[in-house]
Write a structure and sequence with these properties.
Layout: H1 4-12, H2 19-29, H3 36-48, H4 57-85, H5 90-105, H6 112-125, H7 129-143
Helix pairs in contact: 1-3, 1-5, 2-3, 2-4, 2-5, 3-4, 4-6, 5-6, 5-7
Length: 154
């Protein structure tokens, strides 16, 4: 199975990674708790994305830390609601959801808390169930896994 950085690079290609997408990635990584492990993982992932190739590692790290600072200051729910209030085009909303979902799949298990987060993110972004199901299906096909195989049994 490709790791999160590889899959994000495939999905986001050379699309510039803006703060909204970094926030979605940070929120997703922290859906079941905020620790330094998540920060380190997101720093590693962000440095490998093709869309930040022209930026120094320090610049990328600064942007990731800023995303975590926003998350820490506003809390998970507050930052999630903040994303929902942003004026975003449909393509950016889709990229945000894809990026968040890929992060969930990266560790090989999507917990119930992570699933709830994805549903909440879809709601604040205005993505309907049909779009969400389609996006998740694309990711599962890319990862070559059976639908729902990584979901936590609860």
């Amino acid at each position: 199975m490709p790791d999160a950085a590889e899959l994000l690079a495939t999905v986001l290609t050379d699309t510039p990674i803006d703060d909204a997408i970094l926030d979605a990635i940070a929120l997703s990584a922290c859906a079941d708790g905020v620790t330094n492990v998540e920060l380190v993982a997101i720093l590693r992932i962000a440095r490998q994305l093709p869309s930040v190739a022209g930026q120094t590692p320090e610049e990328v790290d600064e942007r990731v830390h800023a995303a975590f600072d926003r998350l820490t200051a506003e809390g998970l729910d507050g930052r999630l609601q903040g994303l929902g209030k942003m004026q975003l085009d449909d393509a950016t909303k889709r990229r945000m959801f894809v990026a968040a979902a890929v992060v969930q799949y990266a560790d090989g298990l999507v917990t119930n808390a992570e699933n709830e987060f994805l549903l909440d993110l879809a709601d604040v972004l205005g993505l309907d169930e049909v779009k969400v199901t389609s996006i998740i299906g694309e990711i599962e096909r890319e990862l070559d896994i059976e639908p729902g195989a990584l979901s936590e049994r609860g």
